[in-house]
Amino acid sequence: MSTDAAAIDTDEAQSHPSGIAQQLRDNVRSGNLGILPVVVGELAIVLYFGLTATNFFTASNFVNVILQMAGTTMIALGVVFVLLLGEIDLSIGFVSGIAALTAAELQLPGSGHDLPGYLAILCAIGVVALIGVGQGTIVAKVGVPSFVVTLAGLLIWQGMILRVLEVRGVIQIEDNWINNTATYYFSAGWSWFIAAAITASYAAVTISSIVGSRRAGISVNLQLAIAKLVGVAVASFGVVAICTHATKPAPCAEGTPLSVRCTQPVGLPLAGVLMVIFLVGLTYLAKRTAFGRHVYAVGGNAEAARRAGINVARVRILVFMISSIMAGVGGIVLAARLNSVNLNVGGGTLLLDSISAAVIGGVSLFGGRGEVRGALLGALVIATIANGLNIGGYSTGTIYVVTGIILLFAVTLDTVARRLQVRSGR
Predict the structure, then answer these.
(1) Cα dist from 81 to 45, 127, 315, 406, whole Å
(2) How many CB atoms lie within 10 A of CB 328?
């Protein structure tokens, strides 16, 4: 080996991360905790309920958790972008209700505009996208604080829902395109194929990233890359393995004794696949596009971003549009679970759960820091707590108290992490 080649190899070895453990220690010291706290917390929650709640560790309950968290997760994925700007969107709950109401109304047979379900969904998403653009324009162009604009939006869209449903009552959703978003299950064969496709796609992206980094002379932590790939494979095939062993209630054959509980097997729920699709798409948008970099830049320092030539107003408008679109998607999934839209659509704890999911998942309320995947993990934590406490027979009040404590802990951890990052110069 030549002297130059040896020097290059030495430099690469010195710049290469010493391993996952060392990188983890460095991140903890600097306050760059990432998703570690929420992952550890979720594992502790699962272990606790697995030991204390009857039927928690069952395949059917696992599928129930996926379905319970799907709608909130969709909304939380959009909230991430708003929080990255250091803004807030208080209207997302009832914006999701507007989307559900619009889709339900447009698919209603005999209404004179009974559209196919997919067109009803597209129209509903278009309506809430316009709402997001309108609210974002007032924030970005007029300069009204997002808290005030979206609080007004909360009241306006809640009022619109009440005006319609107080007269119409409950609207049944009969179209399968809409209902299937929350009630459709893939067969076992398709479920395994989806797991393989997700793993293969992630492997291809990882290999491409490593090759690109090598060509650019950038050191790559192969241990971490392999660990992530193994994690994705285990998660994908593990989820499918559990889902394909789950069952759901089914009509009994004629003559079956009343004491017999009839069930049928299910597979991977479509709602779970939709969560993955939106997670991947929005992660790509945030991490791999100029728009995503602009969102982080504006959230970190809006004035510096403006001086760098970034159209801050445009970024803010688009972010509020994304928030409303994802709220609409979540609202449709939530309505599909009930096969109907009623006066409670968009209400309850939906707003707080969606924002809490993003914050618990590590997205900073101060802007400029966090990842889209955090919303999924945060929603998983909230859904697991609610599911476990319900199975354990705890009251709704207890669920609120526990979720609030975890939210307070997450925000406190974020504040401490920011201080550590300032001290470390990051």
Answers:
(1) 27, 20, 10, 22
(2) 31
Which residues have C-beta within 8 Å of that of residue 182, sequence separation ≥ 6? 67, 70, 71, 269, 270, 271, 333, 334, 336, 337
| pLDDT tens figures, 106-161 | 988 876 677 888 999 999 999 999 999 999 999 999 999 999 999 999 999 999 99
Closest by CA to 240, choosing from 205, 272, 288, is 272
Asked if 42 and 244 count as a contact pair (C-beta separation under 8 A), the reply is no
Backbone angles phi, psi at 115, to 5 degrees: -80, 160
Angle between helices 176-183 and 117-137 (to 10 degrees): 80
Specify the length of the chain in residues.
426
Beta bridge partners of 248: 264
Paired residues of 182 in beta bridges: none
Q: What is the pLDDT of residue 389?
A: 87
Q: pLDDT per residue over 87-107, tens digit each?
A: 999 999 999 999 999 999 998
Q: What is the pTM of this model?
A: 0.87
- Cβ atoms of 107 and 335 closer than 8 Å: no
Which residue from 359, 282, 379, 320 is spatially nearest to 72, judged by alpha carbons? 379
